[in-house]
Amino acid sequence: MSVVLHGSLGWVLDSCSLIDRGYSPCIRWRENQKSALKCSFKRQCFQVFKSYYNENNRADVDTGNTEVLKKTCKPSKKRKRKHHELNQGEIDSLVFHEKIKSVILEGTKYLVDSAQPLGYLNGQTNVDKEPLPSQECNLAALCEMAKDLPLVEDEEQERGAQLLVGEDGCMSHVDLFSQVTENKADWATVVTVMGEEYVIPPHTAFLLSDFTRIQPLVHYGTRFDLIVMDPPWENKSVKRSRRYGSLPSSQLKRLPIPLLASPNCLVVTWVTNRPSHLRFVRDELYPHWGVEVVAEWFWVKVTTFGQFVFPLDSPHKKPYEVLVLGRYRCSADISESPSETSEVPVEDQRLIVSVPSALHSQKPSLSEVLKPYIGADAKCLELFARSLQPGWTSWGNEVLKFQHVSYFNLTPVDEKAEAEDDCTAKEKQAQGFDSPGKT
């Protein structure tokens, strides 16, 4: 069950199940021979059992959960930090937090309490003890090297897209850096790209590039009804960890949103908890693109027991992130049909509650949450993507990062036995054995 609960205050999501929906059936091509696989994302990536504790070794009491998981090791000695006056950024953060604190606290409690009788957020019993995948992603470095390649002429880019795998199962000669690549199959496909195996969802398209090579996405010729982006915001933590390259806020204005968005396109941006970034999106970035802010939502990160992953009042890290939602108000020169001008109102201050991934920067899929606001047949685009979604187009310099086979469990399937099981199940259903109310 990918959407565990949908209530008036928001949603509770099972992020791992959301990923798995797009990978059945799955086919692997090797030497022009295909084999069937059972494919699922590694669930240990979503096994977050404990909250982070404060210096007094107490759990966050704001969650309403009094259970304390004691530490077995001695607390490390830390040098006491000198008290200092708050700077303007810290003051702004505190003011924003106090403004939304009750929404986060009360809404999360309601949603978690509602999900627990359904068997979710009660603590995971089937623990997978395998270590987390640690695949090093070299895609960003490859994009940097691709900058030295000559740009493709506009006439050639008008071809639109290239197929990842031909009808005969042969890998096409693909140029991932200068043309959108599509998997038009009705199944997920395991393919070898640049010497590594990746799992590509069905009916997906992607472009592996950075800002200097985003033109093929515009030449792809599609205007999207939903654009979701998770920019690599600049902050001290990113600079220290060097996990990925960051981008100055001002550079985001270069994204060609007016060339990619359909009329009334829903634009959703993940924003860190720095008020300066939130102000930039609301007051500069969206107006620059012609996007009208319509709502702010919050992603609340909880453990498998339903506790906040960080204390709600922690001065360092908060257990929530902000999403800014807006509608693209197109210029007069874009023709609109009556169906395009209609839109579903977006409610403000909704919560998305889920157990976060232990993998850095892996956000939950918003596909099911946003469907009511864009329609089931909407064309969807993710910018700065680190993974692919069925039916979506994705762009970024790490767009295949979480598609690497090391993040998946791949099990060979006996196609003959599976076909026999399907036939047996259909026969039973036809005879009424599986009908509701019958035994």
From TrEMBL:
GO terms for cellular component: cytosol; nucleus. It holds the Pfam family MT-A70. One of its GO terms (molecular function) is nucleic acid binding. Signal peptide: none annotated. It comes from the Eukaryota. PROSITE patterns: MT_A70 (PS51143), N6_MTASE (PS00092). One of its GO terms (biological process) is methylation. Residues 418-439 are annotated as: Disordered. Belongs to the MT-A70-like family. This is Methyltransferase 4, N6-adenosine.
